[in-house]
Structures are given as C-alpha cells and as structure tokens.
Amino acid sequence: MAATEEPEIIESLLKDAENKPVPIRLMLYPDALLIQKQEWISVQLDEEDEVFLNMVREVEIKREPGAGFGLCVKGGAEHRLPVLISRIIKNEAAERCCQLLVGDAILRVNGVNVESCTHDEVVSMLKEVKEDSVSLSVRHFRPASYFLNKGNETRDGPHFAKQESSQLASLPRLEKEWMTALTIPLLYARVSRYIYGTDKPREDSFDIVGVDGSKSGPMYFTEKTTMLTWYHKISAKTQSLLSQMIQMTNQLMVKEDHILLMCWTYERTSNDQNWRSWKEKFLALKAADIYLFDVPPMHSSDWSKCEMKFKVYECMLKLLKDNELPDGRQHCCSILTGARDAICLNIDSRTELLILEKAWYRSSNLAVKRLQSKTFGCTWQDHLSGLILDMDQGFSLYDHQTKSILWSYRFAQLKSSSDDGVSKLTLNFLSDNTKQLETHVISCSDLQTLIYCIHSFLSAKLSTVDPTFLGNH
Question: What distance in Å separates the CA atoms of residue 147 and residue 450, rounded to the nearest whole number?
Fold first, then answer.
C-alpha cells in the first residue's frame, strides 16, 4: 500500500450476524481498500496516574453513626474475580473520603485478607463492622474499570470539583476510534453488485473479494448514487492495477506471447440450484489463446495448468441481446467453440463487455496473421481433401491422392455459405471468369471449428485491407 497517497474516505454500513447495521469506514488507496470499524481503545494515562493505579492503597472510610459506608461491590471468588467496588454512592462516606475509585479491588478489610473470599462473605464483613470507620486495602483492577464506570459519575463531577482531589488519579477510560479490521488488496480483486451466485442485483450495496480470500461482505450506503460512485471508484482501481500488471508482465515476454486483456467474468452454470447459477471466472486473452481460470494466474506456471483454454481463432464471441439473456443478469456474451457447449459469461458493465469484444477481435486478428494458414481435413466429391485457409491465397482445396490444388478462391470471392449443423458446409463463390456462382460442398468432422476459423480469417483479412475495422469494434 502506497504510504504517501492520501486515501479517499467514506462511512458505510455492514450487517452483523443478526442482520443489524454496523458502522464502517472505507479508506481507498491506489492498491488496497481498508475497512475500519469503531473499537474501544484505552487512552494512555500520565505516568503518575499509572503508578497510582498500580499501587496498593490504604483507605479509611469514616461514616456517620448509624449510616452505611456508601459503596456497592461486585465480583468475588465464585466468579474468579476479586471483590470490586462497583458503585460509590453520592454524598455518603465512601465518596467523602475522596480516596476510592469505581473499579478498585478490595484486598483486605481491617487487615483481614479477602482476596479469596466470595461476594457475600465480604459484604457480611462490611456489615459486621461495629465502629464508625473501616480500613480497606485496595488496588485498582483495570480490566473491570472500563465496564464498571459506565453509568457512574467520574471524579470530574460537581462534587469533586469542590474538593482537593489531588490524591486521586485519572480513571482509565476508553474512547472509540476507527481501527482497521480488514485490508483487501485491489490487484486481482473482484467487485460485484449481485447477490453471490444469483442474478439478483443489490440496490444499495456491493461487495469486494480479494485474491487472498479477504471478503468485505455487502457494504451498504444510504444513497444509491453514493453507492454507485464508490462501486465505480473501486472498480476503476482494480482495472488500473490489472492494466499495470499486464504491462509489467509483457515486458518480460516476446511480443507474440503478450497478454491483451485480463478481467473478472461470471460463468453461467448448469446448476439446478437457483441460488448458485453463476460462478466467477478470471478471463485472459494471451497470444492466440483465451483462458478461463478459477483463480488468477499468479505465477508463470499457472498458465500451463488452466483447464479451460481455447485458440481464440477457433472460437466465436457473441454479444447477447436482451431477449437472449439467460436470466436477469445484463451484459452477457457467449463463447462458441467446436469442442463443447457455448460458454455464457456475464461482465459487470456494458463498457467492460465492449472492451472484451475489442480485445477479442484484436487477439484473433493478430493470431491469424501470425498463423498465416490453417488446413482442415475434409471430403469433397468423395475425395479425401484438405481445405486450406490462407491469409494471402484465400480458400484452396488440396487433393491428398493427386497432391494437387483442385480449386482456389480469394476471400473476397465468397458470397455466401450455409451448413447443416453436423458436417456439411456449402460455400458459394463468384467466379472471376464466368461471373457466375460456383458452389462447393465439403464434409468436415470438425465443422463448427472450421466455420469459426473461416470467420476469424475473414475478420483478419478485412482488418488488413481496412485498418479502421478493428477500431470500429
């Protein structure tokens, strides 16, 4: 955490286990969010007061004939506590002696040790005193002082102001201060307004989860505009840190292996339990691959361990329209692959979704330009063949038996295409010679991957011919 940076600060609320609001304070630094709670802390006393409170004091209480000593006690051996003065009654003997404090432990009564006595035994000893005075040996018991003094008048009250009270020390006291309860690192952190795992957005709160497992819990704000402001503030910090991490990592790698994008997404699951239909996934576009991690890659070896990894040019990204959304979550897209069912992802905002789309096209186009050509095994008119996609040549069909090119067309000659969804692909080309459509039907066992690759090659070719194409996406 950058110590020289002044944090942005705001007060908010968390809810405890009983769903009661607890005040918190957020301190937003460039690389961390501090969540503070109010705690009672002991105020440091003067050295003289410390000495006074730690010493054993001999106190004599003189009372009027027939009156009590004017003090109440709590504790006792049955509670594993000393007998403690819990109250000093106003205008009575104990108060007039000006030598006792609420929280003093009674050690001896008229020289008799009472440290192992019960509450009732000490009360009986005090009641059995026949004289008009009693001698007490006391020492302040600080652990109980904070609690016993709540609701009692302190020695700064009106009575003590009138008398010499130099014999008494200042009472230990507690003050509420903001103390840091949790520090959440913002690098790789995810911020969400949705109730965990559902499509239900929170109206007045959001939460943040750090890569180290630290969790804020829902943080509530009195006004929705304030909540949205802070939601966007924290999101912007996390995105900025990810961008910095990408730049630093890319400096250590060759250009062909550069990372183009990293961001948090949420994958739609097939879970029948409605409360857990979305699972967080960390998406990365690196070189020619798209990765979906359960946790962000912290080490170089993590990239090779990712279980969900696809060649970006063998997939298609589809932004979902409102009528295509699986539930109440907005800003969704699908990653279509030939290897498995579509992967439906949710992203926090429309802006981030468009950033992903742009990075996707850029990653795919760069990958295809580096790849230059790709061949798919297929059959054409019962000939075992290979359909070649080439950035310079376009479409070519290679015959394995004759080892020759049977036909070839530029990408610009493709006018339409269709498929049966299983294995057959129909391609309609405009002949340069006859100016007529020429139709070719090929069969490919990896039909969907072939179709997605054709899209990727066409996109890459178009971006080469029209440099503004990528910018327009």
Answer: 75
**30 and 106, same domain (yes or no):** no
How far is residue 378's CA from residue 395's CA, in Å, rounded to a whole number?
Answer: 13
130: alpha, beta or left? (left if phi > 0; alpha if psi -120 to 50)? alpha
Q: DSSP string spanning 89-145?
A: -TTSHHHHTT---TTEEEEEETTEE-TT--HHHHHHHHHT--SSEEEEEEEE-HHHH
Interatomic CA distance for residues 158 and 79, integer angstroms: 34
Between 339 and 256, where is the model more confident? 256
- The whole model's pTM is what? 0.75
Single out the residue in 141, 172, 203 at which a domain terminates: 172
Per-residue pLDDT band at 160 (split at 50, 70, 90):
very low
Element (H, E) at 85: strand 83-88
Is there a single domain that holds both residue 97 and residue 27? no
- What's the confidence (pLDDT) of residue 66? 84
- Per-residue pLDDT tens digits for 416-434: 999 999 999 999 999 998 8
> How many domains does the chain divide into?
4
What is the number of other CB atoms lying within 10 angstroms of the CB of residue 20?
9
Q: Are 24 and 33 in contact (CB under 8 A)?
A: no
pLDDT tens digits for 134-151? 999 999 887 777 677 665
Range of the domain at 316: 253-371
Q: Quick one: 290 and 317 in the same domain?
A: yes
Is 155's pLDDT higher than 60? no
In this structure, the answer to whether residues 264 and 297 fall within a common structural domain is yes
Domain check: are 242 and 278 in the same one? no
Quickly list DSSP for 186-217.
Answer: -TT-EEE-BPTTSS-B-SSEEEEE-TTS-B--
